[in-house]
Specification:
By secondary structure, the protein is an all-alpha fold. It contains six helices and no strands.
């Protein structure tokens, strides 16, 4: 009798464990379903304006990285080369952060530059050494004025909290780039004007 009761106890224990595993699996399945629902909700909540910002920010970031790489290869002025390295580093970091956010919301990013930006990169790459620095700084100043305006607007109009946080975090870096670019551009133009006078 004792032996029979012992078997009954083992069987009951196995049943409890089995039920526990079943409940755990059910809970895991429920969590997975909830996660899918959250992701779907995130996708549905990305409005047209937010999606447009992601596209513009991604394109602008890639553009700045390529400009920075060009400056490091082609610039004569060492300060321009250093500025190019800063652009590549800072915008590369921002691009990676934006990509992570976009992937989390299952948003696609542009695979490359649009025609207008690509044309400017191609044209700049053909500049001779003497003209490269001035043209590079001209493009960079204009690009960052546009970037700062877009990110300032984004900090107040974006609906998605992750994208808005990205815009708020990135804006000071863009403003710093613009200030430095304008200062370096003014210095280069001053030197160029002085050299022309000597001629």
């Amino acid at each position: 009798m004792k032996k029979y009761n012992h078997y009954l106890l083992i069987a009951a224990s196995l049943f409890v464990i089995s039920c526990g595993q079943s409940d755990a699996k059910k809970e895991a399945a429920q969590k997975a379903a909830l996660a899918d629902t959250v992701n779907t909700t995130d996708i549905m909540q990305i409005g047209t304006e937010d999606a447009a910002f992601v596209n513009e920010a991604a394109q602008g970031g890639m553009f700045e990285v390529q400009l920075g790489q060009l400056a490091q290869r082609n610039a004569l002025n060492m300060d321009v080369k250093k500025f190019g390295a800063m652009l590549e580093k800072d915008h590369g970091k921002a691009n990676a952060e934006l990509k992570k956010i976009a992937e989390g919301k299952k948003m696609g990013l542009p695979p490359g530059l649009g025609k207008n930006m690509q044309d400017r990169v191609d044209s700049l790459s053909l500049q001779n050494s003497a003209g490269f620095d001035l043209k590079f700084m001209e493009i960079v100043v204009a690009a960052h004025k546009k970037d700062v305006a877009a990110f300032e607007k984004a900090t107040t109009t974006l609906k998605d909290p992750d994208l808005k946080a990205f815009a708020v975090k990135t804006l000071p870096v863009l403003k710093m780039h613009l200030t430095d670019a304008e200062s370096l551009n003014a210095s280069l133009n001053k030197k160029n004007a002085a050299n022309n006078k000597k001629m």
